[in-house]
Specification:
Shape: globular
Number of strands: 12
Largest sheet: 8 strands, mixed
Strand order of the largest sheet: 1-9-8-5-4-2-3-11
CATH superfamily of the largest domain: Type I PLP-dependent aspartate aminotransferase-like (Major domain)
Strand content: 5-15%
CATH architecture of the largest domain: 3-Layer(aba) Sandwich
Number of helices: 12
Radius of gyration: 21 Å
Distance between the termini: 21 Å
CATH class of the largest domain: Alpha Beta
Helix content: 40-55%
Order of helices and strands: HHEHEHEHEHEEEEEHHHEHEHEH
Structural class: alpha/beta
Number of domains: 2
Length: 371
């Protein structure tokens, strides 16, 4: 039995004819950069999310860096980010010259508000300006919360929601992209909405921020191609990737529902084991980029599952503050207890809208037998 960890082939088989036609049209008109498909896809993103401005770029890391540049981040500015996430969330802060502050996460793997408030006070004691928080929607669950919003208002923070894993999700009926000052996402192939290369997008309802972001992503351009009014970068979604995403976004709503159904079957089937299961969405609205569980004997389970032909992955084995490039960065004074525990216990099971019931039942029964 061969079980894909993320099944992109089945999706392509469903879309093959339309994707091949869409790419063919780009090859015919030859506008490979800023072709009409890019503007069409941005319009579809506006329609899907309800956000006023959807601005595409080259990848999710650039999206974060551009957002930070739009806020004019300096070395004296503290930017708060979970230590339990992918490197891009912190990398972008360092690249633009800000000061990362690593904070802990909560039971749902997203940013812990109490850890954030402690880190804010740490920054003030260190004569840093608490400027921006980057909540990361880990594994596809939105990190929006009343507690987080209250802290953002209390300390007058700007917020950039990193929705690389949660695009397509909703919170209380509102699509991700509408929360915070800016939301960013990635269209890396394995994401809930992925292209066949690299891609990203930035979302905001602020007209002035949108204008600045559009300038920064295009070499800081002003009113014409050879006027540059901001320090910027070259970060564009190419036309072929936009054409592919136009076809793939048509499936996204249905795929999100299927991902939630698969997560519910996992939780139901594993409920009697010692495995710690993820939180479910009552509205079936999480993106479920990964289905991540925890167990103290993770390595044993991974090895046993591999012997049965069941793939797994660990997101993430090393806290960002322990990475060699970031060991000198600031860490919240209360510590990163949950981050450290999760790095030793989490692992992810196959998750895709095309995971068959036969394959999922085999995965579940294998884990029940092992636990």
């Amino acid at each position: 039995m061969s079980i894909p960890f993320i099944d992109l082939k089945s999706q392509f088989q469903q879309l093959q004819a339309s994707i091949e036609l869409a790419v063919s049209e780009v090859l015919k008109h030859g506008k490979y950069i800023n072709g009409p498909e890019v503007q069409e896809f941005e319009s579809l993103l506006n329609d899907f999310t309800g956000v006023k401005h959807s601005i595409t770029c080259a990848n999710g890391t650039d999206a974060l860096a551009i957002a930070l540049l739009a806020f004019g981040v300096k070395e004296s500015d503290a930017v708060f980010v979970p230590s339990f996430t992918y490197i891009a969330s912190a990398e972008s802060i360092a690249l633009v010259g800000g000061t990362p502050y690593f904070i802990d996460v909560a039971d749902d793997y997203n940013l812990c508000p109490s850890s954030l408030e402690i880190a804010i006070n740490d920054a003030l004691k260190n004569n840093h300006n608490p400027k921006i928080v980057i909540p990361v929607d880990l594994f596809g669950k939105p990190s929006v919360s009343v507690e987080l919003n209250n802290l953002i208002k209390k300390y007058e923070l700007s917020s950039i929601y990193d929705a690389a894993q949660s695009f397509g999700s909703s919170h209380e009926g509102t699509k991700i992209g509408n929360y915070g000052d800016i939301t960013t996402t990635s269209f890396f192939p394995a994401k809930p909405l992925g292209c066949y290369g690299d891609g990203g997008a930035i979302f905001t309802n602020d007209d002035e921020l949108a204008q600045l972001i559009r300038s920064i992503k295009n070499h800081g351009m002003g009113s014409h191609k050879y006027e540059h009014v901001n320090v910027g970068m070259n970060s564009r979604l190419d036309t072929i990737q936009a054409a592919i995403l136009i076809e793939k976004i048509k499936l996204l709503e249905d795929e999100i529902l299927k991902r939630n159904e698969i997560a519910e079957r996992y939780n139901a089937g594993l409920s009697e084991t010692e495995i710690i299961l993820p939180h479910l969405s009552k509205e079936k609205s999480f993106a479920w980029a990964q289905y991540t569980i925890r167990h103290k004997q993770r390595d044993f389970l991974i090895k046993a599952l591999k012997e049965k032909g069941i793939p797994t992955a660990i997101y993430y084995p090393i806290p960002l503050n322990e990475q060699a490039a970031y060991k000198n960065c600031k860490v919240v004074s209360s510590g990163l207890k949950k981050t450290e525990m999760y790095c030793n216990e989490v692992f992810s099971l196959p998750m895709s809208p095309y995971l068959t019931k036969e394959h999922q039942e085999f995965i579940i029964s294998s884990l029940v037998e092992l636990c």
